[in-house]
Design a protein that fits this description.
Distance between the termini: 52 Å
Number of strands: 13
CATH topology of the largest domain: Spore Coat Polysaccharide Biosynthesis Protein SpsA, Chain A
CATH class of the largest domain: Alpha Beta
Helix content: 25-40%
CATH architecture of the largest domain: Alpha-Beta Complex
């Protein structure tokens, strides 16, 4: 059984190496083979050279420095598809896998698949220090005036979800044949949620793991567009960055999964949040 691992990185050499080290420990002497595709999107800290020296089996793909998460993952996926695999594993380089992570993903797939559908399996992650859930699956609430994700608590059985964080996700080849890869109109954020919603629309089931399979802390909101301590000019500039929440991309994403009216409502809410964070928080 072949598993193609796709990930992208930028100037996080130590994290990237630690992630790959844990990955190869997971796959040691198992009944499946891994092929790792890593996009190095213009790192200047020697990430590509360090990975090549430690893990010569990893296929390193050079980016142009403007790919970010969605673009980097898309490029890695396109290269991986040239050598078809049974599964494609999304992996963020800032998570640390537990030794049984891949076993749990694959056993969850086996326990939830049906004769009609191969499911997508989403890994639940927790914070190493607090033990609390950080990333995983979501239910999606839709209405004329709202469109939001609600994080699903971990359960003792696999939990069905509508969308997911893309930190670690196992995607069968049949799903790619059905709905394709990532949306090229998205640069960094929303690509993972978009893919989950596309799976939902196509009738592809998604389940989260019944245990934590990796650790990863929540991203800090400090010094981002959501940081109410920053002046408006800085919040607005950070919002428009690829690593923020570019309004036009956000509008495209919401309209794609709702309608034009809800898209305009949600865009207005986004502008209210960045313009008047204190009112928004109240």
């Amino acid at each position: 059984m072949k598993v193609a691992v796709i990930l992208t990185c930028f100037n996080r050499k130590d994290l990237t190496e630690a992630c790959l080290s844990a990955l190869f420990i997971c796959s040691n002497e198992k009944s499946y083979s891994l092929k790792v595709y890593l996009v190095d999107d213009g790192s200047t800290d020697g990430t590509a050279q360090a990975v090549q020296a430690s893990y010569p089996e990893v296929k390193i793909i050079q980016g142009n420095g403007q790919l970010y998460w969605n673009g980097g993952m898309q490029l890695a996926w396109e290269i991986a598809l040239k050598e078809p695999a049974d599964f494609y594993l999304w992996l963020n380089d800032d998570i640390y896998l537990k030794k049984n992570a891949l076993d749990v993903l694959l056993s969850t797939f086996e326990s939830t698949k049906t004769s009609a559908n191969n499911p997508v399996i989403v890994g639940n992650l927790n914070d190493e220090n607090t033990g609390k859930l950080t990333y995983g699956g979501y239910s999606i609430e839709k209405g004329l005036f709202h469109f939001r994700g609600v994080k699903l608590a971990i359960s003792d059985t696999p939990t069905a979800c509508d969308a997911f964080n893309g930190n670690i996700v196992l995607i069968p080849h049949s799903v790619v044949n059905n709905i394709g890869t990532l949306d090229a109109k998205l640069t960094h954020a929303m690509g993972d949620f978009d893919y989950g919603l596309r799976c939902k629309k196509a009738g592809i089931p998604m389940f989260t793991t019944a245990e934590y399979i990796a650790t990863c802390s929540n991203n800090s909101l400090s010094n981002t567009w959501s940081d109410s301590k920053l002046p408006f000019s800085q919040r607005w500039a950070k919002l428009k960055l690829p690593t923020g929440l570019p309004p036009l991309e956000y509008f495209h994403y919401v309209c794609k999964h709702t309608n034009l009216f809800t898209g305009l409502v949600m865009l207005s809410k986004l502008l209210l949040r960045v313009g008047f964070p204190h009112i928004w928080n109240k």
